[in-house]
UniProtKB/TrEMBL annotation:
GO terms for molecular function: 4 iron, 4 sulfur cluster binding; metal ion binding; oxidoreductase activity. The keyword Iron-sulfur applies. Residues 25-136 form the Dihydroprymidine dehydrogenase domain. The keyword Repeat does not apply. Residues 150-457 form the FAD/NAD(P)-binding domain. This is Glutamate synthase (NADPH) small subunit. Pfam families: Fer4_20, Pyr_redox_2. InterPro entries: DPD_II, FAD/NAD-bd_sf, FAD/NAD-binding_dom, GltD-like, Helical_ferredxn. Gene3D superfamilies: Alpha-helical ferredoxin, FAD/NAD(P)-binding domain. Keywords: 4Fe-4S, Iron, Iron-sulfur, Metal-binding, Oxidoreductase. It comes from Rhodovulum imhoffii.
Length: 477
C-alpha cells in the first residue's frame, strides 16, 4: 500500500529554511533564508492536513489554493504546483518572501492551532516559483490577440504591475508611469534586499517589458505630464501611486538635522545597493555608520529600518514603540530576526522631545496600556515623571504613511477622495467617480500589504476590461 503523502504533521516537525547566522547576515544585504532543498520542500509540504475548511486559503487576500499546491509539491508535481500558484497570484515568489505569513496563512493554519506548528507555506511558495524560473516554466506573456484599447497605469508598484500583467495578457496596450528611475515602487526602493533581493523584482519588470508594456520612468504626473493629458491619451487610467507622505512627529525639536523619514532612509540604502551615487548617504545624512540610531515605530517599515541600520554599522540600534510586543503591528518573525541581529526594542515608550541640532538625544516618555480604544486595542497612556534621555545621532521616523493630495497635485479637483485623503472608489469594481478612471492599492486602502495591492490590481484589471468592452456591447444592443 502506498504511503500517505499528506498529514505528516504528526511525525514530521515544522522546519523553516536554514537561516544564516546573525553575525554573518548583519554584514550584508543578502536574503537571510536559504532555499528549501527539493527533499525538504516535499517533506514540509506533506505536513499539510488537507483540512476540509482551509483557513490558510480564506485568510489569504488572494485566496491562493494553498492546500492543493502543497499536495502537488508533496507528490513531486512541482510544475503543476507552480501553475496553480501562479493562477491566483501574479508574484508568488515575492509574496513568499515578504508576506507576513504569521498573520495571514500560516497564522491561521489548522495544525498550528492544534499545537503541531504551522506548515511553512511562505517558504514552499518561494521555492515553487524560484524553481519555476530556474527550470524555464515561467513563460513569456503572449496575448492570444492584440486589442486596440490602451490603458495608462500611474505607479509601478505591486498593484500597478499586477494590473499591467493581467491587462497585457488580455492584449490591451499598457503604459506604466512612475516617478522613480526603476519600476517596482516600494518593492524596489522601500523593502531592503535582505527581505527581497532586487533581481527577483526586476525580472518580473523585464517580463512585462518583453511582453510590450511600456514604462515611462522619472515621470511625475502633475509636473512632467498632466493627469488630464493622460486621460485624453488612453481609453482608461489606473491610479496605483501608493502612499508616500510620512506621518511626522509633532514634538519639540523634531525639525533638527539627523531626524529623517523612513522612506528617505530606506530608499538611499537601496540605491547604494544598486551602485547608485547617493550624496545624502555619502555625507552621512542617511547613513547609520558609527551612529547611535533610534527608530520610532512598530510596523514592518520600522523593522526594515532597524535591520538596515545594523548592516550599515551603527554602534547601537534601539526601536521605540508606544505599545507592548503583543500589540505591535509588525511581524513577530521580523522582531525576532532584528533581536538576533542586535536591535534593542524599548516597549511602551514614545518620544517627548529632541535635543540638539543636529540631534543628540531623545527625551523618552514611558507608557502603560489603558482602556481599549474604538478599534479594541488598549490605548497607551503616559506615565508621569518617568521620562529619561536616550542618546541618539540618527533618528528615523517610521510612523506610517499618508496619501498625498492628488486632486491638488494633479489639478483634478473633481477626483473624489475620502476624509483621510485616499482616493474614493467603488470597492467592488475599483472605479473612481471619474469615467474610465480606476484606483487600487495603498492610495485607496491607506498603507497596507503588498498582497492586498496585488489582489486589487488583478481585480481592477477585470473591471477595466469590462469597461473597455461596454461600447461594443452597447453597439451590439
Amino acid at each position: 500500500m502506498a504511503k500517505q503523502k499528506m498529514l505528516q504533521f504528526v511525525t514530521t516537525a515544522k522546519e523553516m529554511p536554514q537561516k544564516r547566522q546573525a553575525r554573518d547576515r548583519a554584514q550584508d544585504f543578502n536574503e537571510i533564508y536559504a532555499e528549501f532543498a527539493d527533499r525538504k520542500a516535499v517533506e514540509q509540504a506533506s505536513r499539510c492536513s488537507q483540512c476540509g475548511v482551509p483557513y490558510c486559503q480564506s485568510h489569504c487576500p488572494l485566496h491562493n489554493n494553498i492546500p492543493d499546491w502543497l499536495r502537488l509539491t508533496a507528490e513531486g508535481r512541482l510544475q503543476e504546483a507552480y501553475q496553480l500558484s501562479q493562477a491566483t497570484n501574479t508574484f508568488p515568489e515575492i509574496c513568499g518572501r515578504i508576506c507576513p505569513q504569521d498573520r495571514l496563512c500560516e497564522g491561521n493554519c489548522v495544525i498550528e492551532q492544534s499545537g503541531h506548528g504551522t506548515v511553512t507555506i511562505g517558504a514552499v511558495e518561494k521555492y515553487i516559483t524560484d524553481t519555476a524560473w530556474e527550470k524555464g516554466w515561467v513563460h513569456p506573456i503572449e496575448p492570444a490577440a492584440e486589442r486596440a484599447e490602451s490603458v495608462a497605469v500611474i505607479g509601478a508598484g505591486p498593484g500597478g504591475l499586477a494590473a499591467a500583467d493581467a491587462l497585457r495578457r488580455a492584449g490591451v496596450q499598457v503604459t506604466v508611469y512612475d516617478r522613480h528611475d526603476r519600476a517596482g515602487g516600494l518593492l524596489t526602493y522601500g523593502i531592503p534586499g535582505f527581505k527581497l533581493e532586487k533581481d527577483v523584482v526586476l525580472r518580473r519588470v523585464a517580463q512585462l517589458e518583453d511582453a510590450g508594456v511600456e514604462f515611462v520612468l522619472n515621470c511625475n504626473v502633475g509636473t512632467d505630464i498632466s493627469f488630464d493629458a493622460i486621460r485624453g491619451k488612453y481609453d482608461a487610467v489606473l491610479i496605483a501611486t501608493g502612499v508616500y507622505k510620512t506621518r511626522d512627529l509633532a514634538v519639540p525639536g523634531a525639525e533638527a538635522a539627523g531626524i529623517v523619514r523612513a522612506i528617505d532612509y530606506l530608499t538611499a540604502s537601496n540605491r547604494v545597493s544598486f551602485g547608485d551615487e547617493v550624496p545624502a548617504y555619502e555625507s552621512g545624512e542617511l547613513n547609520a555608520s558609527g551612529k547611535r540610531v533610534v527608530v520610532i515605530g512598530g510596523g514592518d517599515t520600522a523593522m526594515d529600518c532597524v535591520r538596515t541600520a545594523i548592516r550599515q554599522g551603527a554602534t547601537s540600534v534601539k526601536c521605540l514603540y508606544r505599545r507592548d510586543r503583543a500589540n505591535m503591528p509588525g511581524s513577530q518573525r521580523e522582531v525576532q530576526n532584528a533581536e538576533e541581529e542586535g536591535v534593542e526594542f524599548v516597549w511602551l515608550s514614545a518620544p517627548k522631545a529632541f535635543s540638539g541640532d543636529p540631534v543628540d538625544a531623545v527625551t523618552v516618555q514611558k507608557m502603560r496600556l489603558g482602556l481599549p480604544d474604538v478599534s479594541g486595542r488598549q490605548s497607551p497612556e503616559v506615565i508621569e515623571g518617568a521620562d529619561y534621555a536616550e542618546g541618539a545621532d540618527l533618528v528615523v521616523q517610521a510612523l506610517g504613511f499618508e496619501p498625498e493630495d492628488l486632486p491638488a497635485q494633479w489639478d483634478e479637483p473633481e477626483l473624489e477622495v475620502t476624509r483621510w485623503g485616499t482616493v474614493k472608489t467603488d470597492f467592488a469594481r475599483h472605479a473612481t467617480n471619474l469615467s474610465g478612471v480606476f484606483a487600487v492599492g495603498d492610495i485607496v486602502r491607506g498603507a497596507s500589504l503588498v498582497v492586498w495591492a496585488i489582489r486589487d490590481g488583478r481585480e481592477a484589471a477585470d473591471s477595466i476590461l469590462e469597461y473597455l468592452t461596454q461600447p461594443a456591447q452597447v453597439a451590439a444592443e
